[in-house]
Description:
Radius of gyration: 22 Å
Order of helices and strands: HHHHHHHHHHHHHHHHHHHHHHHHH
Amino acid sequence: MLRRRLPLQLPAALAASLACLNAGLLMGWSSPVLPRLMSNASHIAVSADESSWLGSVGILGMVAPSLLAVVLVDTVGRRRLLLTTALPFLVSALWQRFASTYWELLTALCVGSIGTGISVTTMPMYAVEIAQDHTRGRLVAFGPLMLGVGALLMTIVSLNVSFFSMTEFMMACSILFVAIFWWMPESPYFLVAKHRKEEALKALMKLRGTYSADDALDEVQAIQRAVDERTQREISAADSLRELRKNAGARRAFLVSLAVSALVALCGCDALLSTSTSVLEDSTSPLDPGLSATAVSAVRAASAGACLLLLERLGRRPLLLLCFGGCALSSAAIGVYFYLKTYSSPQVVASIYWLPLTSLLLFCVSFDMGGYPLVWVLPNDVMPASMRGLCNSCVSVVSSALAFTLTKLAQGVSGAGAPFAPFWVFAACALAGLSFTLYFIPETKGRSLMDISSEMNVKALGRPPDKRYHCL
């Protein structure tokens, strides 16, 4: 009897998510670093308008790499494409280390956003293709967890070391990712699609922790059957678009994925959290803004970790409902605080000094436990394998474009004397997301990808769904 070995399914997903940790370092950069750059002691003079661009340009810079990833992911493979993200992250940190002007700093962040766009598009695809059905959601959720951990590390490191030491820490994280992920196998789906069946079998044996080829052969054959149905479509992005036009079920899944990503982005997380330190400084709280920002980042990481435990127990829909409901309540509360600060007496504002931080923490718990991880999980649950790359790229583009727009608009509106208005708009969008989830989002917990695809086809054709696919 052949002995078992350590299954690499979990370590491989965790190693791949280190690319997202590097992205989290870059995405969490603005909140703790911008106040330092705007101070008189900064080695680079940065104005308020320049800081707003530094805080938002990285989001916009993710769009082109996300579109490029949809082509490269089926050309070079999931594993190799993830490994290449280390280069822009390393170059970005090195450029920041030696930057002496605002424009050099801005360019460095744009370079880093290339790695971010590719990471958030490719990592969930890699995770879903190495996972078994009962662990799929949990492995994909490692991505948003590591984004939160990266933002937390950035906050802690930037508050305790110099700007130059912070950039050196970012370089070390890029190198660490390559050193760990280098040894992980490629996606079996990609290998089968490229007619490398023997390599796919070996990869699955490593992922499932077996020395017996017979144990993994059935799964390779199942992958082969799925790939054979769409051999040409798996390779070409243009073919994916043609299939999207012809396949009503895939089209419905695509639109649902885009709608969820748009509604989650419209909750205003990037606009709110990129300026969280400034929001806490503008409040009358006696707590140190830096420590409060650290608490916000820690709660984000802990909430993403809790999502890993709850995703396969509660399901997708309850967590999405938690996200939109919590975001609506917390955004409305922050809006009330700044409305009272603008139009009420100082005594009233002083009595509710705790409200901004409490609301920010509630927002983080709701968003990172439900909304953000589901933007990663849901498209990879409902989309056919041939169009996951296209859908992930489009989701990333929609999220990035909306996040950039909201961040810039929120800064402009707040500067015009209505700091409360953006938060009430975010709350209204979250309520819209709550209604959308109730009526249009299927529950995909523990179900095979084929079952989910069948439900989307049935609903798209307008027939009553089978009881097996009924959404609670």
